[in-house]
Every structure is written in C-alpha cells, then in structure tokens.
Amino acid sequence: MDFLMTTISGTAMWIPLYLFIFAFMWVKYGWRRALGFVVCLALAIGFSDVICGIFKHSGPLKHLWESFPVRHRPMYDSAVRDLAHVPSYNHGPYGTVSAHAATAVALAWMSALAIRRTWYSWLIAISVVLICYSRIYLACHFPMDILLGAIVGTVCGLSMYFLWKKFDKVIEKNYLCKAKNE
Description:
This protein is mostly helical.
C-alpha cells in the first residue's frame, strides 16, 4: 500500500477536489463570493501550515517558540523506528503537529460549512480520515500529532469560515445596493 498511501498523502490527487469546491462555490454563490471564499480558504490553510511549523521548528515562524519540545517523527524516533514500515525518508525530522492533518481539517470545515450537502460532508470527512491515516502509515506522525493537527485545523478553518461569512455579507450587501441603484 506504499504507493497508494504516498499518493493520498500528496497534493496532486486532491486537485480535482479543490477544483470541484471552487466550481461549486462559483455556481452557488457567484464569482465575487466564491473568490472571497477561496481567499479565506487559502488563509485557513496557510495559517494552519504556519502554526504547525511553529511546533516543528520549521517554516517562517520556526524561531517563535524555540523552547517548545519537538518530537521526532516515528521514522526517526529510536524507540519505534525499527518497528515502523518506512517507505520514504523525504521528510523533516520533526512531526510534533501534523500540518497535513491541520490543512485537511481546515479545508474540510470551511468547505463543508459553505457547501452544506450531506453527501459532500461525508466525502470530505472520508478524505480527511484517509489523509490522516496515510500520515500514520507512512511513519510521518504519531496519532497524537494527527489529533493536534486536527485541533489547529479546526480553529483555523472555523475562524476563516466566520471571517468569510462576514466578508460575504458585505459583498452581498454592496452588490444588492448597486443592483438597486441601477
């Protein structure tokens, strides 16, 4: 299952889902509101990734909390590395908070709340579980790393969703006022 889990953990496989989300939002809300959604979604994903980097001492804010104790990924942890199946060592040494889990959960919260279709909520939930499991399978994270990433993603995703809703009301109000004046 190495190839499958590596593919699930990658980005290219999920591009059709990202395009679907944008297209659905465009059709449902119009291009202005969809664009606002994409900006807030990008912020949610970006903030999730940067926050996770703080805990792994990587990324642009890696020196923000240098006293935070990092934990090696299972593939580098001397206590478990011989027990783990490691298909690839193409990862940094630390995996204290999973950025994959954080970004996937942020995307899931924002898109599920905006799309509001039961079938989609199930689809995105299954996608998140697959991504998170792939990170454990690939010996990149311990389950606690996934849980911490999911918490970061939930906070970022919900925060940016509510920001988008505020932004969306302003766009809708301005658009309706313009249409009324014409």
